[in-house]
């Protein structure tokens, strides 16, 4: 399964490392990643891949909870949603 992960929040040390470690712990591989800091705000977008049988609801909750620990907002969406939008 491919998914898109976004991370937004006040810039702070260790956000990329923390999110990457959390994703790895959840069984995801980062296929592509882009991040920047805009006026003190950190933004990241990553394409990740993982097991097709993953419980997406649980993964979303785990990432939201972890984001609170890092003081950022983490969101994950299935890449199939984006693919479907462009096939209409």
UniProtKB/TrEMBL annotation:
Start and end residues of each ACT domain: 4-77
Domain of life of the organism encoding this protein: Bacteria
Gene3D superfamilies noted in UniProt: 3.30.70.260
InterPro entries the record matches: ACT-like_dom_sf (IPR045865), ACT_dom (IPR002912), UPF0237/GcvR_regulator (IPR050990), UPF0237_ACT (IPR022986)
Pfam families linked: ACT_6 (PF13740)
SUBUNIT field: Homodimer.
Recorded family membership: Belongs to the UPF0237 family.
NCBIfam families referenced in this protein's UniProt entry, alphabetically: PRK00194.1 (NF001220)
Protein name as annotated: UPF0237 protein HF992_06825
Organism of this sequence: Streptococcus ovuberis
């Amino acid at each position: 399964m491919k998914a898109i992960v976004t991370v937004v929040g006040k810039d702070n040390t260790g956000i990329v490392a923390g999110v990457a470690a959390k994703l790895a712990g959840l069984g995801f591989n980062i296929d592509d990643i882009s991040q920047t800091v805009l006026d003190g705000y950190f933004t990241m977008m990553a394409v990740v891949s993982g097991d097709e049988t993953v419980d997406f609801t649980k993964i979303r909750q785990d990432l939201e909870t972890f984001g609170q620990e890092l003081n950022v907002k983490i969101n994950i969406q299935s890449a199939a949603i984006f693919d479907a939008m462009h096939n209409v």
